[in-house]
Amino acid sequence: MYRQRDVDLSSALNKLSWPSNSSKDRCERKFHCQLCSYKAKQKGHLKRHINEIHNPNPFTFFCEQCVGNSFECLNCGRRYRHSTSLVRHIDYECGKLPQFQCPFCSHRTKLQYDLSKHIAERHTDDPYRFNCSLCHFKAKRRNLVKRHLFVVHHLDSA
């Protein structure tokens, strides 16, 4: 079902099951990772965990069943899982020059989000502004600190 290297993600994802729908069960972490002690409240969170933590190369992890359900750009052939992503690609990216100019340097981006990320990482006093509360680890993005907390300190922040 899933292609990957080195880690048997397919068997871990196949063992996922849906919890019951009672109000008591909605608050509990019912989805257990087969590769470590991680527990999640939602199936999608567990899938994201397996992809981000246990897959050494995220570009080799994709669902073969979803490839047929993707949206393809007719200009360049890029595929997207969601139609809104394809619309964004057509409106701002495909065949277009970068239209968002950094006010501090000559860097240009095709998306406003990428420009905001560039400014935060390159033109702030401390681009490593997200800190681990348990050690001296610093990161440019909050999600990297969350991953650090899980991998290094074995804490679940979800």
TrEMBL record:
Pfam families for this protein: zf-Di19 (PF05605)
Q: Which residues form the C2H2-type domain?
A: 71-98
Q: What are the entry keywords?
A: Metal-binding, Repeat, Zinc, Zinc-finger
Asked if the record carries the keyword Secreted, the reply is no
Q: What is this protein called?
A: C2H2-type domain-containing protein
MF terms in GO? zinc ion binding
